[in-house]
Input
Amino acid sequence: MHKRHFLKAALGAAMLFGATLSAHADDILAKAKTAGVLKVGTETAFAPFDFIDAGTHAGLNVDLFDEIGKELGVKIEWVTLPWEGVLPGLEAGKFDVVAGPATITKARMERYRFSSPIAEATVAILKKAGAPISKPEDIAGKAVGVGKATAQLAQLTEYSATLPSKVDIREYPAFNDAYADMAAGRIVAVANSLPNIAFVAKQRAGMFELVLPPFGKKTYFGYVGRKDADYASLMDAIDAALIKMKGDGRMAKLQEKWFGTKFDTPDSVKEPAI
Output
C-alpha cells in the first residue's frame, strides 16, 4: 500500500476506533454493566409501587427491578428522594432511570422516553366509608382531594367540568396527606390512579372504600428515562425485559401480589389518551 494511502487508511481506522470507543464509553447500559450496578431513582411514598414497610423499601417497583436486574445482569442501587426531585435528578445524571412510575402523557413523552407500561393508571375515586358516593358522578359539589401538579388533577378538573355542580378540588403535595384529611373528615373522597387507591382500600378496609368504575380516559404507568442517544440501549433493554415478563407471566403474578388484580397493558404507548 502506498504510504500516503496507508497513513490515510490508518488515520481513518483510528478515527473510527476512537469514535466507537467514545460511543461505547458514553453508553449508559454499557457503563451499568461494567460497574455491575444500575442506579434507579424513585420516591418511597407511592404505595404499592414504592413505600417503606417496617423500615424496608418495598413494593411492585422493587420486585420488578429485581427481575430487570437479573435480565440485564446488574444489581439495582436505589436512590430515593421526594418526587419533586426525581425527574430533575434524572436530567442531572444522578441515576440512570426513574421507577416512579409516572402516568404516560403526551406532554411528558415530548421530554422523556417511557418504558413499556407496567400497569393501568386510569383515575378512580376512594371515598370515606359511609360517604354518599356510589358512582363517580356523585362527587359533584363535594370536597375531593388530589395530588398537586399530577395527571390525576388534570383528569379530575376535566371531569368536574362535566358535572351539574363543580367538585371542590383540594390539592395536596402528597397523596398520604389527602388520605389523612379524608380520615379526619375534611374531605369525602380522593381521586388517584386505580392501582394506588385499590391498595389503600385494601390496607384500610372499614375506613375507606373504592368507588367503581374508574372515570376519565384510560392511561398507563411507565418507567421514565432520558431521550438522549446514550440512554437508548438501556431503555431498549428495560423494554425487552418488561415485555419478556409480560409473556412469561411474571408481570401478572407481581401485579396480583400488589394490586389484587392484573392489568392487560400494551407493549408500548405511541399515542397517550391525555
Notes: The chain has ten helices and 14 strands. The two ends are 62 Å apart (CA to CA). Residues 5 and 201 are 74 Å apart (CA to CA).
